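User: I've been trying to design a sequence by hand for this structure and keep getting stuck. Would you show me what you'd pick, starting by listing the structure so we're on the same page?

Assistant: Good idea, let's start from the same input. This is the structure you sent:
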């Protein structure tokens, strides 16, 4: 049985300051999402340096938090990296791994992303594993092959732990571009991923599948109404409390 609640996660990317984050969180708390969006579990993923502030501000609220990445390593001489235990120490629940911006700007491979998902789980974090095709790949008819390849690395690496992940389908051409996949396009890929997960491990059919890519208050309800869309990973619209709250309420 899949969870009845949708999961709505804000990816703040490399935006914000202590002051602007405080304002954003004030707006989110004022939105009283526990009461006004009871069908959504909500989380935000700030840059690492703001995790302590965000943890402090959201403690005791209905909003969880996570990191935007996590190291494969737990500790050691890995300059610039931040590990799962460090993120956990700040009460994080989630770690996004394999965002397309990490795959493209930091050359993260499918296997590295899978290893990061495993590391997150090893340290008590739920990985939100991002997969998605570029526009060129979609136009070449390779969407399914690309997401299947990205997913397979995770399936092969996690084994029975596959049931513990969250997957986010984020078509690269829809991220930050204002171009949203149509509900039908998104649903088709979600159904494909659901089938792949189920074939790998029957219990993995219940893995939450989020859609990400220019989700806004005016398109969220239609996307969330699709049979295999279990929530959203929200970029730009997560930076405005009113928009993010409206998306959570669309769940
Ligand atoms: C993202 O970066 O995860 C994302 C979905 O961004 P946006 O909502 O801005 O397209």
């Amino acid at each position: 049985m899949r969870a009845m609640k949708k999961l709505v996660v804000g990816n703040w990317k490399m935006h914000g300051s202590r002051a602007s984050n405080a304002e954003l969180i004030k707006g989110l708390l004022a939105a009283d999402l526990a009461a006004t969006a009871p069908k959504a579990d909500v989380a935000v993923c700030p840059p690492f340096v703001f995790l302590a502030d965000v943890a402090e501000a959201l403690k005791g609220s209905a909003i969880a938090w996570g990191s935007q990445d996590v190291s494969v390593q737990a500790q050691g001489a890995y300059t610039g990296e931040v590990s799962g235990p460090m993120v956990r120490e700040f009460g994080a629940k989630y770690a996004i791994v394999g965002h397309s911006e990490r795959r493209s700007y930091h050359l993260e491979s499918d296997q590295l992303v899978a290893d990061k998902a495993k590391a997150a789980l090893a340290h008590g974090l739920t990985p939100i594993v991002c997969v998605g095709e570029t526009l060129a790949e979609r136009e070449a008819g390779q969407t399914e092959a690309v997401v299947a390849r990205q997913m397979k690395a995770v399936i092969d690496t996690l084994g029975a732990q596959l049931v513990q992940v969250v997957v986010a389908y984020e078509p690269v051409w829809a991220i930050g571009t204002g171009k949203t996949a149509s509900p039908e396009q998104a649903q088709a890929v979600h159904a494909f991923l659901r089938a792949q997960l189920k074939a790998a491990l029957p219990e993995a059919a219940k893995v939450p599948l989020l859609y990400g890519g220019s989700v806004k208050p005016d398109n969220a309800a239609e996307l969330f109404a699709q049979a295999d869309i279990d929530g959203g990973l929200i970029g730009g619209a997560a930076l405005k409390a009113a928009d993010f709250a409206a998306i959570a309420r669309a769940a």
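That's my pick for every position. To get oriented when you compare it with your attempt: The chain has a mean pLDDT of 97. The two ends are 18 Å apart (CA to CA).
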